[in-house]
Design brief:
GO molecular function: isomerase activity
Protein name: NAD(P)-binding Rossmann-fold superfamily protein
Shape: globular
Keywords: Isomerase, NAD
Helix content: 25-40%
Family: Belongs to the NAD(P)-dependent epimerase/dehydratase family.
Distance between the termini: 28 Å
Number of strands: 15
Number of helices: 11
Mean pLDDT: 82
Low-confidence stretches: 4-85
Largest sheet: 7 strands, parallel
InterPro entries: NAD(P)-bd_dom_sf (IPR036291)
Length: 355
């Protein structure tokens, strides 16, 4: 997630179990046979010769039994199929922890690059499992995946929906087999800059213990790096119907500084960069995802109003104090990964020329 959405937000506490949840054993039972009393002796039938059934046929029979009985015991066909499909994980199969907006775009692009692969999506709740199944992502609940590990794992879940974010990263790392790549999408909010100054991949971060909001991200990053995974620090994510501009338009006016610098990257570009990093199969590296065209809040909304692509107009920012932002730059990432964004700037995304 991006700079704003990756930070923990206050919310009502909801306890999620991290214990692995076993799927009940599905077994078709034979109907009961009525008993009768006989006075005549009955000749015992000859024993039926035993038959050897191949492993593949046994698995097919078990799968059919599971599918036919799942509706009667409250286990969906998709869940049963998910449990069985985890018997084998392909070399290019992908596990996405947190398949939200970004994760779903990653899934779509990954399938285009690796036709025939399977993509698994791990979520905190089952609320959107139907949607995930419809777009070809095999859903499962957090803590339920057991057994075979994956060559490719990407963690896109934000911290505000977790009671133990660092623990969630440890679980994700345990689902990686050490091949391919394990990638964590973090945030550039961890960089220690609030004066609109320039920042890059190697700029200093906020010291641990100074801010609980950045502590959780930095500790999560450390888990990933120690496991050999990579970190992609993203700036503010956007597309036409999501992003800071949409929120500000809904408000009309906002008590915030107009000169605060923001950094942006389109969701599609963030996804393509994530895939490019995973394909490099690197270890314990930190990258930055941004479009290298930082804008102030006022500049963003001036362009939104000028584009004519939205039904309403933003009235203005009224704040005069508060911290400023940072100007992110990722030329090092681009050079090493060989990546360029589809949308070089928010201005060009809106169909405008750079001012």
């Amino acid at each position: 997630m991006g700079e704003a959405s990756r930070l923990p937000q206050p919310r009502p506490h909801r306890v999620h179990s991290h214990q692995s949840t076993a799927i009940p054993y599905l077994q078709a039972t034979a109907p009961a046979v009525s008993s009768y009393s006989f006075t005549l002796s009955v000749r015992r039938p000859a024993p039926i010769p035993s038959l050897r059934v191949s492993r593949s046929r046994r698995r097919a029979a078990m799968s059919a039994a599971a599918g036919s009985s799942s509706s009667t015991i409250g286990v969906s066909d998709a869940t049963a199929a998910n449990a069985l499909s985890l018997e084998s994980v392909g070399q290019n199969d992908l596990l996405i922890v947190g398949p939200g907006v970004l994760g779903r775009i990653v899934a779509e692009m990954w399938k285009q690059e690796y036709p025939g692969c399977k993509i698994y999506g791990q979520t905190a709740t089952a609320d959107h499992h139907g949607e995930l199944a419809e777009i070809g992502i095999i859903p499962s609940l957090k803590g339920s995946i057991m057994g075979p590990k994956f060559s490719y794992v990407i963690f896109c879940a934000p911290p505000y929906r977790s009671e133990d974010y660092v623990g969630d990263l440890r679980v994700a790392a345990s689902n990686w087999n050490g091949e391919g790549c394990f990638l964590f999408t973090s945030s550039t909010a961890v960089y220690d800059c609030s004066d609109n100054g320039l920042c890059s991949e190697d700029s200093p971060c906020v010291p641990i213990g100074q801010s609980p909001r950045t502590d959780v991200l930095l500790k999560a990053e450390n888990v990933v790096l120690e496991a050999g995974g990579c970190v992609l620090r993203l700036v503010g994510l956007y597309k036409s119907d999501r992003g800071p501009h949409v929120y500000w338009l809904s408000k009309g006016t906002l008590d915030a500084r107009p000169d605060h610098i923001l950094n942006l990257i389109h969701y599609e570009d963030a996804a393509s960069l994530a895939i490019a990093i995973m394909n490099k199969r690197l270890r314990s590296r930190i990258f930055v995802g941004c479009d290298n065209e930082p804008l102030s809040r006022q500049e963003i909304m001036d362009r939104v109003n000028r584009s004519g692509k939205f039904d309403t107009e933003f009235q203005g920012f009224t704040g005069t104090d508060g911290p400023l932002g940072k100007r992110m730059e990722n030329s090092k990432t681009r050079a090493e990964i060989g990546w360029q964004p589809k949308y070089p700037s928010f201005t060009e995304f809106l169909g405008l020329s750079n001012l």
